[in-house]
């Protein structure tokens, strides 16, 4: 299971890097175009939407690495089983949120699927909104992995 999830994370990193690279290139094009007083309409939308995808991919990876922002005052005071129980409670709450992202993100994606981009009418807004249910699913997988690992550690496993 760990190898499959590691592969999933690696693919996700490449997707995030690709969108961040697109963002950087498009912003550079936008800067050059403004300097040359050339109007390029599509750069703003591409920059915003690629940045959204890069951020969501990065946020999901941070969930896997447990590197997201957290208040750990209480957690740092606990050890052993109590710490694992708190971790499980936190992860179950996070899982509820990510499943909410998955379910309602899918509804948003479907709602906006046939809306077109302003500057590139052949592109559908559904592709932009697809990042929400996708990362909801990925974060849910990572959180379930954390819950399973905590249960194994509570039972004296590695």
TrEMBL record:
Coiled coil: none annotated. It comes from the Bacteria. The chain crosses the membrane at residues 12-33, 45-63, 84-105, 125-144. It is a multi-pass membrane protein. GO terms for biological process: C4-dicarboxylate transport. Keywords: Cell inner membrane, Cell membrane, Membrane, Transmembrane, Transmembrane helix, Transport. One of its GO terms (cellular component) is plasma membrane. InterPro entries: DctQ, TRAP_DctQ. Residues 24-150 form the Tripartite ATP-independent periplasmic transporters DctQ component domain. GO terms for molecular function: transmembrane transporter activity. It is found in: Cell inner membrane. Belongs to the TRAP transporter small permease family. This is TRAP-type C4-dicarboxylate transport system, small permease component. It comes from Maledivibacter halophilus.
